Amino acid sequence: MSNEDGDSVTEDISILEVEHCEDEEPEPTNENVNVGHPWPYLSDMFAIKSISKTNAKRVHQHKLSAFNKLCDEAKTKRKMPSRKRSNSDARDSGGPSAPKQQKLDAVLSSQVKYNANLVTQAQVDDLLIKFMTEALMPFSLVEQPAFKEFVLGLQPNRSVMCRATVVRRISDKASLVKKNLKEAMDKVEHVATTTDCWSAHGRSFIGVTGHWIDPETLERKSCVLACRRLKGKHTYDVLASQLEDIHTEFEIRSKVSKTTTDNGSNFVKAFSVFAEQEQENHDDPDKDCQFEDVFDDLTQASAGLEYQLPPHQRCAAHTLNLISTSDAEKAEADGNYKRLSRSTLQSVPASGIRASALFKLQKWLKRSVA
After folding, report:
1. What letter would DSSP give residue 369?
2. Which CATH number fits domain 188-277+305-314: 1.10.1790, 2.30.29, 3.30.70, 3.30.530?
């Protein structure tokens, strides 16, 4: 290149590294720094990649310090992730300050407020009713300060029902359960009941259960029909009255096929007097005619109309228990039994099989039969 005087002048032009335009932008390296395109009119064909440090040092001596500073800042940004502005920087720039870390007390208090709303008041009431009915707790429990403190300690934003509300809620649920039982037993034709009475802490009670077969699933269903207190002596007529009243209350009086009880004398007499007796057919054309006392039959029939009980069924388990205990002791006092038992036991030592059977029998009875 020549100047105006005709002298030849050589200009040191820095060599630029260029590459063909691609879709992806190249990542800068540690030895290079991104710069603007020196030939804008050629930007469609070529894209500037970077300037070599050697060329920058040789050609752009006056901009070398700024170039090195840019390179150092680029290295620092790649090595260290971006950090949030501090509160002082945010205040200086006028922006919002970074949130402070909460203290432990504040976190716990907020957690307590959150947990206090996990259980609704309706759930607390239902759980309280369920606890009192299944645990047989007295109604006065809800009036105890310690119980109130216990519930409020678990759920501070909830309240404990008063005694009157508890009584009303339990009565409503009992009515609902009774209604469901009536509807279930109304769909079947036959129902069997069991009953028993007992005494505890100077009080007498009677309990009645119901049992039937579901006509659709053929499964046996069971439920508790009643558990009532008996005032006074539980004589046979009192038991008959209570049992008939329970059958009538659940509308199963005509559906009860049999009622099972133990062998107590009061139950045996109640069913022998007021129960419907199963009559056997003894028709015999050759049998001679017999005269019966009509007056006695009418008297007994009128007496039996006071209460109407279903046929009676004695508990087989209780009967076997009586045989193995009281009846076995009575048999030992009988002379014929003693004679037969002694002759039988004398033949045991002669056979190992008999001796083994006797040993098993004594072990099962937990007593000696010799």
Report:
1. -
2. 3.30.70
Per-residue model confidence as pLDDT tens for the chain (370 residues): 444 454 444 444 444 444 444 444 444 444 444 455 666 766 667 665 565 666 666 666 667 777 778 778 777 776 665 554 555 555 555 555 555 666 666 655 655 555 556 788 899 999 999 999 999 899 999 999 999 999 888 888 888 999 999 999 999 999 999 999 999 999 999 999 999 999 988 899 999 999 999 999 999 999 999 999 998 888 899 999 999 999 999 999 999 999 999 999 999 999 999 987 665 555 555 555 555 555 555 555 555 457 889 999 999 999 998 888 888 778 777 888 778 777 777 777 767 777 788 778 777 766 666 5
Taking Cα atoms as reference points, which of 240, 212, 246 lies closest to residue 227?
Answer: 246
CB 209 within 8 A of CB 225: yes
Q: pTM for this one?
A: 0.54
Cβ atoms within 10 Å of 208's Cβ, excluding its own = 23
- Cα 341 from Cα 334, distance rounded (Å): 11
Give the type of residue at 108.
L
CA atoms within 13 A on the CB side of 64: 10
* 3-state helix/strand/coil string of 180-218: HHHHHHHCCCCEEEEEEEEEECCEEEEEEEEEEECCCCC
Q: Where are the domains of the chain?
A: 119-186, 188-277+305-314, 318-368
Please give the structure tokens belonging to residue 247. Answer: 């059958």
Q: Minimal CA–CA distance to 308: which of 279, 277, 276?
A: 276
CB count within 10 Å of CB 307 equals 19
